[in-house]
Amino acid sequence: MLDFPNNEVKSGFLTMVASNYLNTTENVNSLAQDLAFALADGETELFRKQLTSFLASIPYSMRRKSTEPERERYFQYTFYLLLRLMSVYTVCIEREQSEGRVDCIVETPKFVYIFEFKLDGSAEKALQQIEDKGYDRPYEADKRTVYRIGVSFSSETGTVEDWLVAEE
Question: Is the pLDDT of residue 39 over 80?
């Protein structure tokens, strides 16, 4: 697996890529740290606000158009890339399990976050899919707190439209 040789290189890469991608002078490292701290502290609402703010800063011309296939994957990829670059946490996408594939799992020392994404759907439906397919079952014996999070992205605004959290 490819990885950065150290945190200094990782930080420099994140700053360069995100600054060019977003065309901003905002301190990208600060955003990444804020997101990482929110996950480390189990602050799901703060994480949602920061993620929504980040997504809102991406120019609409960068998002996939309605005529392009796999528009949901754009949001999933952006989410994964942001999480992978900002943290040392374990981040898995499309993890296959006995009853399906989880969109994203983030593991921190104290918490496990299981995300299911829907594009122009409901967060309730996404959360229900996590429960119906038992995406949290592999963590039943885990001592960490498990958060199941249903996320609905809006293709119109390019941000988080709806967000539901269930905690075990």
Answer: yes
